[in-house]
Amino acid sequence: MYYKNKSYRTFYYFNIALLIIVSILCIMPMLHILAVSFSGKSAAESNLVTFFPIDFNMESYARTFENPNFLNAIQTSVFRAIIGTLFGMAVTIMAAFSLSRSRVDFKARTFYIWFFLFIMIFDAGLVPNYLLIEKVGLINSFWALILPGLVNVWNMILMMNFFRALPKELDEAAIVDGASTFRILFSVYLPVSLPAIATISLFTMIGHWNSWFDGMLYMRSQEQWPLATLLQTIVVVQDFSKTGITPEDLELLSNRSVKAAQIFIAMLPILVVYPFLQRFFVKGIVLGAVKE
Amino acid sequence: MKNTHIITSTAQSSTARIRRIPFQKTWRLHVLLLPAVVLALVFKYAPMPGIIMAFQDFKPWLGIEGSPWVGWDNFKLMFTLNGTMQVIWNTLLISVLKIIFGLVVPVLFALLLNEVRNMGLKRSIQTMVYLPHFMSWVILGGILLDLLSIDGIVNRFLSFLNIDPVMFLGDGTWFRVTVIVSDLWKEFGFSAIVFLAALSGINPDLYEAAEIDGAGRLQQTIHITLPSLMPIMVVVFTLSLGSMLNANFDQIYNLINPLVLKEGDIIDTFVFRSFQDGQYSLATTVGLFKSLVGFILISGGYYIAYKWANYRIF
C-alpha cells in the first residue's frame, strides 16, 4: 500500500503538521481578542497580551452590560434574529413546497421559478432600494430589517431541492388517504424535513445576527440599531462615545479591552450555535450546491 | 366525493397509474406562494423602475416624476471620471484575485485534508477552519484592525523576527494584499466543503486498480483525483465569475481608510459614498452598471455550468 512507503510517510507527517498550523491560524485571532478582553489596562494598552489574559479581570464585560445602548442593541438583534428567522422560514417553506411540485402537477411552476430567479441575478441597486423603503414608510421601523430579507431565493432553492429529493411515494400515500395539499405539507413534508429546516434556520439566524448595513441605512436613531450596527461604529469607525465608557472608567480600563469584550459578545451566539450547525450543514450545503 | 373517486380509480389501476394522480387543484399551491410573491414584488421588483434615475439628474425633492432627463450623460460621466475608472479597476483586480485564490486554495486544502486518515483529527481541523466563515466582517474587521495595527500583535511578531513593521492597512499595495489574504482566510475552509464532498464520492475501485498497477499516491492524485474533481471545479469557477464586480462591500467598507482610498475603493463603496454625498444619479448609474454586468456574468456562468458540467440549480 502507498502509505507504507517511506516518502509518503514523510509527506503525511508534514501534511498533518501543516494542517494543524493552518487550523490554529484560523482561530488564533479570536483567541487573542478573548484574551485582550479579560486583560488589565496596562497590559492591554501596551499590547503585551498574546493568547492568555494578563491581570485577569471582567471589568470590560461588567461595564459593557451596564450600558443601556448596548443592551438595547442586543435586544433588537435577538428580536430580529427570532422574528426574521420564523417569518423567513415560513415564507421559504411554503414557497419551496409549491415549487417542488412537478411541472405536470403545477403548470405555473416554470413561471414562478423564473420570477424568483430573476431577483436573484438582478438587483436594482442601493439607491432605488433605499428610496423604496423610504416610500413605503419603513425608515426608522424595525420591519425594515425584516421584510426586505424574507424572500431569500437561495434558501428557497435549497429547500425546494430537499423536498424534491424526498420519495414520491410519500405524497402518493397521503393523496390516497385523502390529505389536502396543506395537510401534505404540514403532516408529511415538515416532519421529515426537520434537519434541512434546522440547517437553513440556523444560517438565516446567523445572517440576521451579523447583518449591520441595513441598520445603518434605514435607522436614523442610534437607539434602534441592532448590535452589529452599533459594533460597527465602535470598532471600525472608532466612535468611542458609544461604548458607554466614561473618562473615569478609562483610568482602570483600556479602550482596547472594552472593544475586545464587545466583539466577543457579538461572536458568542455564533459560537453557541456552531456545534449544532456543524452536525447538519455539510449535508445541507452539498444538497443544494451539487445537484446532478 | 372527489376522494372516493380517486380511491376507486386507483384501486383498479396498476401502481404505475398511481403516479399520474393529478395533484388535486392547484389553487392551494398558488396560495402557498402568495407571501413570497407579494414580498418579492414589493421589495425586489418595485425598486427596479428606480433605475431610470440613471438617466436623470435626480433630485430627491423633485422625485422621479419631476427630475430632469439627461440621457446618457451619467454613463458618459462614469466612463470619463478618473475616479470611477480607478474604482472599476480596483474592483476587478481584487475580485479576480479572490476568485483565483478562492478556487485553488480550497482545492489544495481539500486534497491535503483528504489524506488525513485519523477521523477525529480531521473533524477537529474542519471545526476550526470553518469557523471564520460564520463571523461577520464587522467582527473580523474589528479584530483585523487591532491585529494589523502598527503596534498590533502581527507587527510585534515581525519585529521579533527583526522585520520592519508593515502598514497592512495604511499602504495601498499592502491593503490589497490584506484584503485578498483575509478573505481567503475567512472562506477557504468553508469553500472546501463542496470539494471534500466530491472527493468522498470517488469510486475507491479506481484507487485499488491504480495501486495494483503500481501508481504512487501522487500519481493517483494526478490521474484519478484531479480529473474526478474537474467537473465541480468548473462549476465553482464559472459560478464565481458572477461576482467579478463584487469585491465584497462588507469587508472593504470595514477595513478601508482615507490613506488607501485610491487603491482600495471598489464599486460598492463608491456607490455608497456617492449616495451619502447626495449624488443619487451617479450612485444609481454605477450601481446599474454593476448589476447589468453581474446579470450577464451570472446567467452566462449558469449556462456554461449547465452545458459543460450538467449543473442545474433547479
From TrEMBL, chain A:
Membrane topology type: Multi-pass membrane protein
Q: Which UniProt keywords are present, listed alphabetically? A: Cell membrane, Membrane, Transmembrane, Transmembrane helix, Transport
Quote any Pfam family the record assigns: BPD_transp_1
The keyword Ribosomal protein is assigned to this record: no
Q: Which PROSITE patterns match?
A: ABC_TM1
Where is this protein primarily located?
membrane
Q: Which GO terms describe its biological process?
A: transmembrane transport
Keyword Transport found: yes
Location of the protein in the cell: Cell membrane
What sequence ranges are listed for the domain ABC transmembrane type-1?
A: 74-277
Which cellular component appears as one GO term in the record?
plasma membrane
Q: Which residues cross the membrane?
A: 12-38, 78-99, 111-130, 142-163, 184-209, 260-277
The record's comment on protein family reads: Belongs to the binding-protein-dependent transport system permease family.
- Name of this protein: ABC transporter permease
UniProtKB/TrEMBL annotation, chain B:
User: Where in or outside the cell is it found?
Assistant: Cell membrane
Its Gene Ontology biological processes? transmembrane transport
The ABC transmembrane type-1 domain covers 88-301
Task: Provide GO CC annotations from the record.
Answer: plasma membrane
**Transmembrane regions:** 27-46, 87-113, 134-154, 174-202, 222-245, 280-305
Identify the keywords attached in UniProt to this record, alphabetized.
Answer: Cell membrane, Membrane, Transmembrane, Transmembrane helix, Transport
Membrane topology, as annotated: Multi-pass membrane protein
Q: Which InterPro entries match?
A: ABC_transporter_permease, MetI-like, MetI-like_sf
Q: Which residues form a coiled coil?
A: none
Known PANTHER family for this protein?
ABC TRANSPORTER PERMEASE PROTEIN (PTHR30193), LACTOSE TRANSPORT SYSTEM PERMEASE PROTEIN LACF (PTHR30193:SF44)
- Family in the record: Belongs to the binding-protein-dependent transport system permease family.
UniProt protein name: Protein lplB
